[in-house]
Amino acid sequence: MTRIRDLALAFTALSLVPTAALAHGSMKPSHGGVVQMSGEIMVELVTRPKVLEIYVTEEDEPIPASGFDGALIVTAADGAKSKLALSPAGGNKFTSASRPPSGAKVVVSLTAKAGGAKTFATFRMK
Amino acid sequence: MRAKKSILGLSALLAAGFATLAGSIPAQAHSIWFAQRARQLALIYGVGADDLDAVGRMDKVTSVAGYDDAWQPVETSLRASGPIPVVDSDEPVAVVAAIMDYGDWVKMPDGEWHASTRKEYPTAVIGEHNYKYAVHYSQMPKGETPMIPGHRLQIVPVAGMFPQSMGMPVILKAYFDGKPAAGVQILTDYVNDPDQTPLVTGADGTVTFPVRNQGINVICAILLEKPAGKSLYDHFEHRATLSFVLPHKPE
């Protein structure tokens, strides 16, 4: 058991594959927000007073928001889950129906209308 | 590094009514596992590099389950996307699991297999029922690893950890019906080396070996369960895969 424990201590916890390391193109926000990579798709979240804005690009190229069905999965600090609509707002921009509360976990869920492939990006509201 | 074979463990194994064919892999060698395809997580049916028709076998999938980074269930399903079944969920899943009931099989003296039983083929040399399980970790959730409902055979990373580099030892434990299982055959690299001589779990159900790939690792466990009493079956074959990815260096 001691050997097993020692070996275990030598490990580090498995983390998600560091997708940021795989990115081609800029990983810097273009609209003053925060970014997450999902594969080679960059998702930028911008917090506005009443809504969130989401921008999507792939290898520096904007991806038309109209090509996705979007939603925000919001988990509040108390664990309560809710879903917010995410609407295309021209170009590669989406806007949310409202602004999630501070401390909430926000999952941007984008489903490609062609093929149904899912893209997720997870953020934490300040 | 090979797992230590324990005579004591083997005795306990036999007493528990299990039978393993040490050093040999049953001919019905196909398994299911999860792997990334075009950024989506897909269910693969096959052996080694053979990525066979999984969509055509989706009707044999009896359960799909997903869990978030705290082992909380996430509604998860499989969806046919062209020739591959992909995992569909409304949220990211840290762990996804599936069960396939592959049904009855007999092996005839001429070596042919049929999806049937000894009732229809009384001269069969092997009669079995196959169950296939797959568990994939995209992320290690916090907290103790649960026994996933329906996964009678499950491989669990000891201490809830994987190494981050190939060549480092990984410690896994096989559970059957929720209890540590000795004598379970373990293939350490099912995709790239499916014909390897299997390791065998020790008396405490654990096995330790160096992680083979700085990429996807698919570990396959095999256990043959003896039926109680007289049966059409020689055994029930349980095949469980555990898959995880070690990250490559930044580009």
How would you sum up this structure, described in words?
Helix content of chain A is 7%, strand content 44%. Chain A has one helix spanning 2-10, and strands at residues 34-38, 41-47, 52-58, 61-62, 68-75, 81-88, 93-96, 105-112, 118-124. In chain A, strands 1, 2, 3, 4, 5, 6, 7, 8 and 9 form a nine-stranded antiparallel sheet that branches. The longest helix of chain A is centred in the N-terminal third of the chain and has 9 residues, at 2-10. The relative contact order of chain A is 0.18. The model of chain A is unreliable at 1-21 (pLDDT under 50). By secondary structure, chain B is mostly beta strands. Chain B has one domain. Helices cover 4% and strands 45% of the residues of chain B. Chain B contains one helix and 19 strands. In chain B, the strands form four sheets. In chain B, strands 1, 5, 6, 9, 10, 11, 15, 16, 18 and 19 form a ten-stranded mixed sheet that branches. In chain B, strands 12, 13, 14 and 17 form a four-stranded antiparallel sheet that branches. A three-stranded antiparallel sheet of chain B has the order 2-3-4, with no helix packed on it. In chain B, strand 2 (31-37) and strand 3 form a beta hairpin. Chain B is globular and about 55 Å long. Mean pLDDT of chain B is 90; it is low at 1-24. The interface between A and B is medium-sized, with 31 and 34 residues.
